[in-house]
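Researcher: Final request for today, and then I'll write up notes for the group meeting. The sequence and the SMILES for flavin-adenine dinucleotide follow.
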Amino acid sequence: MSTGRAVVIGAGTAGLVAARVLAGHFEAVTVIERDTLPNTPTPRSGVPQGHHVHGLLALGAEVLECFFPGLRAELAEAGAPVWDWGEGLCAVLPKGTPPPVPMGMPIQAFSRPLLEHVLRRRVAALEPVTLRDGLAVTGLRTAGPGSVTGVRVMGAEGEDEIAADLVVDASGRSSHLPRWLAGLGLPSPRTTTVDARIGYASRTYLYPEGQSRPPWMGLLEPLRAPDFHKGCYAIQIENNTLHVTLHGAGGTPLPHGDDDFLAYAQTLRGPIAETIAVLPPASPVRRYARTVNRKTAYHRLPRWPEGLIALGDSVCTFNPAYGQGMTVAALEARLLEQMLRSKRTRTPLDEQSFQKRLARITAFSWLMATTPDRAWEQSQPTWHVKAANAFMDRLIDTVPHDPRLYTTFSRLFHMTAGPLALADPRLLSRVLIGPRPGRNPRTPTA
Ligand SMILES: Cc1cc2nc3c(=O)[nH]c(=O)nc-3n(C[C@H](O)[C@H](O)[C@H](O)COP(=O)(O)OP(=O)(O)OC[C@H]3O[C@@H](n4cnc5c(N)ncnc54)[C@H](O)[C@@H]3O)c2cc1C
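Model: Predicted protein-flavin-adenine dinucleotide complex:
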């Protein structure tokens, strides 16, 4: 039976999926968002990353489809194409581009604002949910340091308080939770950062009627320390649009406008420059540089208040180059669902144990993102970072010559397989032998 009231801080991806879960367990769920939310799929100031390419990993798509049955079809109706990762991706890797290979891994490409728009519409339609926008959470309401009983808010009508049995912090990278906990007299959680100083510059292009399209649906040219400082990610999304993000690591200067965007693209090895040179731009160039990996060890605090949990980017953010953030947020919401379903205690949820189990979810993604990033950050990487990166480099260099390895690596990237998938001795020996002569990768085309 549903009882009590929950408050979610932030209507980003993590907040919306958490609200969907809470709607099944609480009488009332209030999602509080400081932005005024648009009625259309448009970027907004509280989510500046909405201007940049957002790829949803295969696992994230599966989890979201379970929470929102028909989501894929709804996005498709809004124009978001679906394609097989192995057939539709052109991956310009340091040692070549793998030929297309069917992988049975459906991928859907859309803008972040479209996904958020569809999720928001779905969540707002749930009976227990109220979306309150234009309202910023300024602090926690408490009954002593051991218990959170709601939030303090500030909106057009001034300050107010909203009572809640459970408060969920999903306020993203700019979360004030460490400061709010300190205000409760709780110790400061340890924060770890790994910064590859990666910057993004993005814009969209339109395919005019009759304009031929590239043979790929997605183009990926990844960064790799120490030699590959520049890369890109481009995807065909809704509204006949090509969304292009150019990125640079280690503080590489990024383009600002029309001329230097194309000039930057021309310095890449793949076909992005030829592709965009003939397309009319549909947006200005937008830049973003807060891509540091950061995790806050809430799970290690000796005490944690009842009535509070935190998830999404507010706990752990990843360098977005690996496309993990939305998928991890969906997995965290799934954990919340599992824990709410199996509650055996008087309180709605064992909050501290939620944070501990959440830390296990983020651990693998953290390792995937920070191991290569440490190679940009450290002039003298430790031996285990060097060894892990040497293995991954060899694997990625072998991928263009080995369709089976390409498929396994793609499943790992999309989180539909765990690291044990690489423990297969046949795959391991292929990696250790490295690229085999005579099996030529393809030449990428625009
Ligand atoms: C450049 C870039 C590219 C990315 N690309 C990808 C990608 O390809 N694939 C992927 O999966 N992920 C990607 N991510 C990560 C992804 O955007 C996030 O991990 C994911 O959306 C989860 O974020 P969130 O909901 O926790 O936070 P956010 O999406 O940042 O949402 C937080 C929300 O809280 C609101 N808020 C903040 N403070 C308050 C307050 N005090 N009161 C009320 N509301 C508040 C904000 O306005 C915002 O709406 C990218 C990130 C960046 C920066």
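Model: The CA atoms of residues 398 and 435 lie 4 Å apart. Residues 351-377 form the longest helix (27 residues).
Researcher: Thanks, that's everything.
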